[in-house]
Design a protein that fits this description.
The model has no long low-confidence stretch (mean pLDDT about 85). This protein has about 140 residues and is mainly alpha-helical. It has helices spanning about 5-15, 25-40, 45-50, 55-75, 75-95, 100-115, 115-130.
Length: about 140
């Protein structure tokens, strides 16, 4: 994945030019979402995750610390971040082979962000698939 592809997807999902030099909330949120997805889901180093915006490791750590709280308190941010995450993972899957550590990180990340009710619904859906009632 190139930085240009990542920036394009982020701008598409958040609707802002993330390379614009501004600290307005919608721009910072978009940048925060991208770097935390690259770090948490794909396991990139802090420096590599910050590369699309020339962030150093400290900025990525700061964004990571704020991301968890925002995901719990801001439904709009959380929804856009999840949409971005899915688009990035889809692009990653098309261009790379999945390794076990990446699959594990994605699975753990999903479980941490699901409510108990979501987990019950997921279990029910998986049971239906196992029983052959749903494809």
């Amino acid at each position: 994945m190139t930085n240009e592809q990542l920036l394009s997807i982020t701008e598409e999902v958040f609707g802002v030019d993330t390379t614009k030099n501004t600290k307005k909330r919608e721009y910072v949120d978009a940048r925060r979402a991208l770097v935390t997805i690259l770090r948490d889901d794909l396991g990139w180093t802090y420096n590599k995750a910050g590369a699309p915006y020339n962030y150093n490791h400290a900025t990525v750590i700061h964004h990571s610390n704020n991301n968890e709280w925002l995901c719990r308190t801001d439904i709009d941010y959380s929804t856009k971040r999840e949409k971005l995450r899915l688009k990035i993972l889809e692009l990653y899957q098309k261009q790379n082979r999945w390794d076990v550590s990446t699959i594990y990180r994605i699975f753990v990340s999903l479980l941490e962000n699901l409510s108990p009710n979501d987990i019950d619904q997921l279990k029910y859906a998986l049971d239906l698939v196992k029983e052959g009632k749903v494809d």
